[in-house]
Amino acid sequence: xxxxxxxxxxxxxxxxxxxxxxxxxxxxxxxxxxxxxxxxxxxxxxxxxxxxxxxxxxxxxxxxxxxxxxxxxxxxxxxxxxxxxxxxxxxxxxxxxxxxxxxxxxxxxxxxxxxxxxxxxxxxxxxxxxxxxxxxxxxxxxxxxxxxxxxxxxxxxxxxxxxxxxxxxxxxxxxxxxxxxxxxxxxxxxxxxxxxxxxxxxxxxxxxxxxxxxxxxxxxxxxxxxxxxxxxxxxxxxxxxxxxxxxxxxxxxxxxxxxxxxxxxxxxxxxxxxxxxxxxxxxxxxxxxxxxxxxxxxxxxxxxxxxxxxxxxxxxxxxxxxxxxxxxxxxxxxxxxxxxxxxxxxxxxxxxxxxxxxxxxxxxxxxxxxxxxxxxxxxxxxxxxxxxxxxxxxxxxxxxxxxxxxxxxxxxxxxxxxxxxxxxxxxxxxxxxxxxxxxxxxxxxxxxxxxxxxxxxxxxxxxxxxxxxxxxxxxxxxxxxxxxxxxxxxxxxxxxxxxxxx
Length: 502
Hints:
By secondary structure, the chain is α/β, with parallel strands linked by helices. The protein folds into 3 domains: about 5-10 and about 50-180, Rossmann fold; about 215-365, Alpha-Beta Barrel (TIM Barrel), CATH 3.20.20.70; about 370-500, no CATH class. The chain is built from 18 helices and 15 strands. The strands form 3 sheets. Strands 2-1-3-4-5-6-7 form a 7-stranded mixed sheet, with helices on both faces. Strands 8-9-10-11-12-13 form a 6-stranded parallel sheet. It has a two-stranded antiparallel ribbon with strand order 14-15. The termini are far apart.
């Protein structure tokens, strides 16, 4: 088997253009959240800013195991980005992974690569590519192949069989006639993660301590929330890593880390399997590693015994998918919880681990939302901050990502998609859709209003804790400034239709 030169290009995050008033709000919010985090945990955690995609490093490790020569770039790292044009000249295959908002950036890089090295094979993988394979090839003539199967296996087979890659299962590609063809996945289940080598961390250009590490103990999510592309990712328990292997990986990436460096478990539901979670917490507590941890989970998988075990294992933060506190909205999006379960989960965590930071995810603009439900959220959520039930609210605008029901059949959810400019499919900008009950402008106004009210709640809580006088709350003119600047003259046409939410 010939040894191939493979260049893997990672774009794990993306900038979002926000208007200056909202940028001011974000800066103040982040400072306030930092103060509240230190107050809750008792110390300042360290979290390096440079991310990477663990999945791409797993693919790199598997390709190396097969004997190929791999180079890996994180494109947001300017030092890595400067090497792109040089390295693509030497590559037989250039593999990209990207989320929806940066897929157009990938297309631009494909054009650069083909101009410099026309015979290099440009390949794209990731959640957007899996669900929009043909569309990606149509939008970018320089892109040759899209991976729709298990990344490690389909991509590795493609590299192994470069001269005859059109026979590889789980890919969509451009034929010699320029027509598009798609190879179906093999019925045989993909190889379990435990059989794969660990991530190829040695390919990272900088010391491990300079990266923000996200560890996964298993892949996918068994739930089917309409707004989440993870709904397509569950393949059963085949994707579970051995727990000792997880601890060994954390031991590796924590070498040289600053005191109290945070490592995040990016499992969709970290506490999905209670016994397994307890076993992992026991191993982490015994390992006495010089780092602290956070995780994501669902409110209906919060258990007192598990939370206590997590606290003993140096978990300092838990992130919960609350999404909304209106039961009708939650039912509409198939979240399979009710608001009382969220509130109960907060009580369990607060009583079982008083020093654990609670971060609640919220989504503005879910189907079923109205001006009335937005107003109730704007009144209820800040009280949770002031009562210290929650420390941080991660509020975002809903995005109908490709692969979700909201993108595939919006009419069934009383939604209308406004455009498919992928760079606007982020969670901080004007929505790319409207609802039967809410225009895109009303959704965004509700989002900005909640953001402003949350900032006031954070700053009020800090002022009370420090026993200092609180400045008078800012009026909604602050929100209107942001609202009008974000949307431009059209916003003025809709301003009179937007009633205050509080």
